Amino acid sequence: MDKEKQVYSMLEKVYDPELDQPLTELGFIDHIVIKDNHVEVVIRLPTYWCSPNFAYIMAEDIKKYVSELEWVKTVQIHLLDHCTSDEISRGASAGKSFSEVFGALSDGDLEELRKTFDIKAYYARQEKLIKYLLNRGMTKKEINSLSLQELNELPLPEEGKLLREKYLEKKKVLNHSSTFAITTPEGKPLSEEEFSDYLQGAKLTRLSMEFNAHYCRGLLEARYNLSAAHEGSLAK
């Protein structure tokens, strides 16, 4: 795999925190530049006023994941056309925290914000997995009583395996100690009585995120005059 493909494979791991979709699919990666073992990642966002907090999280994650490639010596971030382009580009490239860059204008570092979005992504991914299992004939009771081991051992086709993998990825981030597969974001098992209402709430979270993602794609397409064919390829 050549260097450019290696960098893009790492960028596929970087998600918009609010939308829980990869920057590569959203079209937020404008291009990359590789000189020797130094990488510059140029990113663009749907509007000039997109939240600096969200932008900084993405920039930090770009630097983190691309830096994991053994041959990469430095990673520079270049954010285009944003109200805080210079601050975010310089700060994230230098490995500084959000509060170091924005000082009194920040509400501190971004860990609490990251956790908030991890929980939303957890709900959305969980709802997709539960709906998939229900459509395959599992009952609410069976899903509710699944252990993590049993979930991992379920013989699922590729679509199901991907949904399971993405859900468990967020479950791991939330550091659950429970052995139950399906729990609240706090790791609490669900009772049969609360299952349906809980699932409905998770569905609303997912729909809100998907609507926002569709809206952001439209804004990005209009802002940068992206062709419909190009945009369609981003929304696989």
TrEMBL record:
Pfam families: FeS_assembly_P. InterPro entries: FSCA_dom_sf (IPR034904), MIP18-like (IPR002744). Residues 4-76 form the MIP18 family-like domain. This is MIP18 family-like domain-containing protein. It comes from Parageobacillus thermoglucosidasius (Geobacillus thermoglucosidasius). It comes from the Bacteria.
